[in-house]
Amino acid sequence: MKSRRTLLAASVIALSGLAAAACSSSSSSSTSAASSSSAAASSSSSGSSVNLSSVTLNVGDQKGTGAEAVLKAAGLLSTLPFKVSWSDFTSGPPMLEAMASGSVDVGGVGDAPPVFAAAGGEQVEIVGARSVPSGDQDALVVPKGSSITSIQQLKGKKIAYGSGSSANYHLLTVLNKAGLTTKDVTLVSLQPANALAAFTSGAVDAWDIWPPYVQQVVAQDGAKVLAIGSQYGSPYSFEVAAKAAVANAEKAAAIKVYLATLNKAYVFTATHPDVWGAAWGAASGLPASITTEAAKVDATTPVTITSAVISSEQNLVSQFYKAGLIPNNVDMSGFITSEFNSTVAESG
């Protein structure tokens, strides 16, 4: 999965309204339907027993496309043996800002947000990873009727994207492979709702975005895809946690159970795209035909954090730094941990 963000309803007005609620916190979900014995988990750092029924995990989410919807689709939302306080965000960067401030313990983002957070010195770290077997499914799209048929023709044009999001890296690789730089185009940083409005109104010439927005604008607006696939972006998305939460025995134990459960949910949705597509549509307000198509191409597989995963993120650092988009060539090894790798095996 690439960056999973707030899904918007079909109309631009509804889309804008939803995005304005970007950091609204929902009421806590008491999800312990399990027995009291299952409410105890082993702390990943000390091995001591933790009574999870007394823990509240603050989870950052991207409503409609994120963890809560995935867990619900897989029938696992009610199995978490602790309370969850969900907070919705329009994309990964504002979620990680909230995480750095202490209001969010853990949440899912795309490949680029952890790099920007690390470069800014935010106290967060990657605790889980998923890969998209078919490669990055973010896409660069142009409106129906556009005369642009190649990446080179974007020189001097306005391109909407989310600064610090997975689309940021996808767009960077698209431009680089075409022999262009970010200075050859006009970058317009917009959150998804505003970007959609700008794209459909003709205020921008192109938009780099993730599923299901790709499928939405193609199906509903006749947009054309210029660049998509494994040759662009990176194949990973991540679960990121506040370092303070990982250092807390109770929070760390809850994160471990949360990741194991979420990984199971992603395994389910990857193998049941129709079920996930229907749930995705219900959560987002988009037609199931659009979200089911997105589900088929954007399925993700939980993977352990290895040297290859770290190297992939370090490559993002190099590319962003070279392009002048981050202030330093930060070492990502200090912002990633393999402490929770066992949760991948538990998802099988």
Fold and architecture overview:
With 348 residues, this protein is an alpha/beta fold. It is built from 13 helices and 14 strands. The protein has helices at 12-20, 67-73, 92-101, 113-119, 166-177, 192-201, 213-221, 243-247, 249-271, 273-284, 288-297, 307-322, 342-345, and strands at 29-30, 40-42, 49-51, 56-61, 83-88, 106-109, 124-131, 139-142, 158-161, 186-189, 206-209, 224-228, 236-242, 301-303. The strands form three sheets. The protein has a seven-stranded mixed sheet, with helices on both faces. A five-stranded mixed sheet has the order 10-9-11-8-12, sandwiched between helices. Strand 2 and strand 3 form a beta hairpin. Residues 1-47 have low confidence and may be disordered.
